């Protein structure tokens, strides 16, 4: 017998059925946080990134003297992440996958600068939201860039010849 729940789901118009997935995150509603504020935060963050001895040269190689479009794009990105206004429609994963010189540990530097910048510029409750989102996105970028499944069937070194 078809359950009542299933009937309900299949009878719903498709736009309602799509809402059955995880609930979308709500926009962060805080009097301090608007595009102007996010733009200031983004600019200060990248000022510090450019001054960093490890990350500065990585960005310089890709961005050169064309910082303004990158800063505007990153402001759009953070507006989309925090205000959910759809301002950004790029593809961060391929943009990072092509950066050959980035190491996994570089993300710790990136996040440390991000944490310091938000602590310096934001109220604690605002900083907490930006940092939580940055950590989540950094984690998924790292997975996309560095995670590889171990090759199936290849024994670990310890069991390969029975000696450790
Ligand atoms: C070690 C860490 C990171 C490095 C070295 C790095 C470097 C870069 C560089 C060089 C670009 C410019 C790519 C281009 O224009 O071709 C870029 C773009 C971008 N980055 Fe990162 N990034 C890092 C981490 C992150 C994190 C954690 C986030 C998000 C929280 C992020 C978000 C973005 C976005 C949204 C773009 C624009 C992609 C596009 O649409 O073109 N990045 N990054």
Series of H and E elements = HHHHHHHHH
Helix vs. strand class: mainly alpha
**How many strands appear in the DSSP assignment?**
0
What are the segments in which pLDDT stays under 50 over at least 5 consecutive residues? Answer: 1-14, 158-164
Count of separate DSSP helical elements: 9
Largest sheet geometry: none
Give the rounded overall mean pLDDT. 87
The ligands bound in this entry are: protoporphyrin IX containing FE
Task: Tell me which CATH architecture applies here.
Answer: Orthogonal Bundle
**Helical amount among residues, as a percent range?**
55-70%
Considering the protein shown, what is the CATH homologous superfamily?
A: Globins
Overall shape: it is globular
Beta-strand content bin:
under 5%
Query: Which fold does the CATH topology refer to?
Result: Globin-like
Query: What is the domain tally?
Result: 1
Distance between the termini: 58 Å
From the alpha-carbon coordinates, what is the Rg to the nearest angstrom? Answer: 21 Å
CATH class identity: Mainly Alpha
